[in-house]
Amino acid sequence: MLSILPRRGANVSDNLANHFLLGDDVVFLNHGSFGACPRPVFKAYQDFQLELERQPVAFLARELTERMRMPRVALAAEVGTSPDNVVGVTNATFGLNIVAQSLDLKEGDEILTTDHEYASLEKTWAYVARRTGAKIVVVDIPIPLLEESQFTDTIIGAMTDRTKVLFLSHITSPTALYFPIERAVAEARKRGIYSVIDGAHTLGHVPLDMEALGADFYASNCHKWLMAPKGSAFLYARPELQHLLNPLVIGHGWTAESKQPGAKGTFGNSPFIDENEVMGTRDPAPMLAVADAIAFRREHDWDSVARQCQQLAHETAARVQKLTGLTPLSAPQFSAPQMVAMPVPHIAEPPKFQQELMDRYRIEIPVLNWKSHSIVRVSAQGYNSKPQMDLLVEALKEMLDL
């Protein structure tokens, strides 16, 4: 067993690794769970907090509405839509709850989804189904996923005249698959089915264009692959459907006239923005720092960094696959670029195995059982290096007796 931790960033750029606050005592291969915020972005976040504390009334009562426009404008440019169609929320789960708890569902309506969804959103829809009497229909996506038609035909084939909602992950959490959702979303629109997309892992990870995609509602985190501070995410809603949404918290942004055509919110934006942005005292600094995260990525040519990380992640998965002999969950084009779910021989207790990887090798990485598969999910970000991946491969070889 190696006793000296590999240096971070050795094969991408030591300089990039030095931009992050991650401790040198951990090999962090789990960017996909919560991300990691670069030092300059974290400083911008703290500067906003300090400014708030120096004059909280001016910051929150007089200036915040205009300040919050800056991250909306920056985000809208990143995701191909108007700033009026996105609103800042604390995380993707919160944004998707706004949608799920707003749609007018009733007994007999169907919510169509897959067997790859994130657990907290499965619970969200279970709650909605219990409250409304709607039925959740879960389809199994064929594994390994080798062709777009396997996914799309499965989804469209399960649509019925009772289907009211299509809920899909764009990049899945447990299996790290990059679903080709475009044709399914288009078919849902054609049939009058609301398309609700969990894009928690997409922003900063894969190209996004809301207008081209055509989804009705879409939420993504800024704190993961965009590398903004924790507590930053966005919810997108098509303009003609924004009136359907109700805020989870009724606060100063709510107005009784919000459902009328052309209504304005309390603070001059649309009700969609004002009702969901103004909900009582909270720390707006994570959202305000989103523009700094976008600027950091541009300054460091993060598209080029991401290509190197994609190569590193997929090369590592290929090495593990060669050791295990197990079939990958998908063809490469249907795996997330910088995050790969690697099948390994059966692990009886994933939490114990995950902790042992930390205790013995100082490797932080998710380990889980999904259906009949045991999975180790590796992420590669600009601070990671090939020596770190070498350590992971050797650790799995030892612990799984490969």
Describe this structure in words.
- This protein has 402 residues and is α/β, with parallel strands linked by helices.
- It has two domains: 14-38 and 301-399, Alpha-Beta Complex (Aspartate Aminotransferase, domain 1), CATH 3.90.1150; 55-296, Type I PLP-dependent aspartate aminotransferase-like (Major domain) (Aspartate Aminotransferase, domain 2), CATH 3.40.640.
- It is 41% helix and 14% strand.
- The protein has helices spanning 14-18, 31-34, 39-54, 56-67, 69-79, 92-100, 119-132, 148-157, 182-191, 210-213, 271-277, 285-288, 290-299, 302-324, 350-361, 386-399, and strands at 27-28, 86-89, 110-114, 135-139, 163-169, 194-198, 217-221, 233-237, 339-344, 363-364, 367-370, 373-379.
- The strands form three sheets. The protein has a seven-stranded mixed β-sheet with strand order 2-8-7-6-5-3-4, sandwiched between helices. Strands 9-12-11 form a three-stranded antiparallel β-sheet.
- The model has no long low-confidence stretch (mean pLDDT 94).
- Pfam families: Aminotran_5.
- Keywords: Pyridoxal phosphate.
- InterPro entries: Aminotrans_V_dom (IPR000192), PyrdxlP-dep_Trfase (IPR015424), PyrdxlP-dep_Trfase_major (IPR015421), PyrdxlP-dep_Trfase_small (IPR015422).
- It comes from Devosia epidermidihirudinis.
Describe the secondary-structure layout.
Elements: H1 14-18, E1 27-28, H2 31-34, H3 39-54, H4 56-67, H5 69-79, E2 86-89, H6 92-100, E3 110-114, H7 119-132, E4 135-139, H8 148-157, E5 163-169, H9 182-191, E6 194-198, H10 210-213, E7 217-221, E8 233-237, H11 271-277, H12 285-288, H13 290-299, H14 302-324, E9 339-344, H15 350-361, E10 363-364, E11 367-370, E12 373-379, H16 386-399
Parallel strand pairs: 1-10, 3-4, 3-5, 5-6, 6-7
Antiparallel strand pairs: 2-8, 7-8, 9-12, 11-12
